[in-house]
Amino acid sequence: MLKINGISKSFNGRSVLKDVYLSIHKGNIAILLGSSGVGKSTLLRILNNLETADSGSVILNGDTLDLTLVNKNHTVGLVFQQFNLFDHLTVEENIMLPLEKTAGKSADQARTIAHELLAHYGLADKANVYPAQLSGGQKQRLAIARAVALRPKILCFDEPTSALDPLLTAHVATSIQELARQDYIVLVATHDTTLVEKLDCTIYLMKNGSIIATVSSKDFYLNRQAYPQVDQFLAGIIEDVENAPSKNASV
User: Each residue of 54-75: pLDDT tens digit?
Assistant: First the structure.
């Protein structure tokens, strides 16, 4: 289980995260839902040691997680909003490079892993092309394959459908759900209401750096009226979320 305990973060005196708590079991998906600027991406960046929290702690399976080591130990993986692929490397090399440079795999081992993942994500015929030659959906699948290659315990997705045609959202949701079934802990930062509707997840609605409502997607869709803040956000009534009565569900 992953527990985030009281994480706070400010930039230049502006509070971006305010005492954030959440927990998520292995094989489950946590959706960090909210408009741009509410702190979703910052929380993922802290988990990936790309930002440093001002206070709070992260617990993984009962032990405090040293976030300064998560990249070295490959504990956490991140699929970036803009994919962050290496444009000068082929599709195959994009997966091989981190395996060789950070995981200590030989070229043959890295290539075998890359080929297996490319086949799994429907990119086997793209192994020798460059990212610029891929569609948005193919770039997304490559970014997921690269993150999965290092076998992290926690996988983070930052706005995974923002750069995609809405028709591809269902495919992204299928990939994320599959990763949860493989026992990854999955966190997804998004404001895409269509993606939320397609996932079996726990919804953490964020506003102004805080979690203001928590509910499982199953419970929410059984009784939307009981969770007015989440309901209003998903219905597009974003401006009314702050004043709606709070209703949290146990996770």
Answer: 999 999 999 999 999 998 899 9
- Contact, 150 vs 72, CB < 8 A? no
Prediction pTM value: 0.91
Burial of 238 by CB count in 10 Å (0-12 exposed, 13-18 middle, 19+ buried)?
middle
Asked if residues 7 and 53 have their Cβ atoms less than 8 Å apart, the reply is yes
Helix (H) or strand (E) holding 202: strand 202-207
Residue with tokens 């490397």: 89
The topology (CATH level 3) of 1-75+183-251 is Rossmann fold (3.40.50)
For the chain, give every domain's residue range.
1-75+183-251
Query: What digits encode the pLDDT tens for the residues 74-98?
Result: 999 999 998 999 999 999 999 999 9
CA distance 192 to 246: 21
